[in-house]
Amino acid sequence: MTKWLNAGIPPTQVAEWAGNSVPVLPATYARCVEGQLPDLKRHLEAAGDLPEPPAPG
User: Fold this and answer.
1) Cα–Cα distance between 50 and 57 in angstroms, integer?
2) Cβ distance 3 to 34 under 8 Å?
3) How far apart are the C-alpha atoms of 42 and 46, rounded to whole Å?
4) d(CA 37, CA 8)
5) What is the DSSP string of 11-23?
6) pLDDT, tens digit, for every residue of 2-53?
7) Distance (Å, rounded) from C-alpha 38 to C-alpha 42?
8) Fewer CB atoms inside 10 A, N or C side of the chain?
C-alpha cells in the first residue's frame, strides 16, 4: 500500500483496494509516505487552497 500512496494514487482508491477505510491509512502508513509534501503544496497553491500560516505570537 505504501507504494500506491507514494505513487500518488488517491487515498480513497488505496483504501478501497486494501479493504480499509481512509482514516486507517494515515494512522497506519503516515510514516511510510515520503516526499509528497512539496507536491501537495503545489497542488494546493494552484487551486488557491493553501491555508495561511498562523500569525506569530
Assistant:
1) 21
2) no
3) 6
4) 11
5) HHHHHHHHT--TT
6) 788 878 788 888 889 988 888 887 777 766 666 666 776 776 677 776 567 7
7) 6
8) C
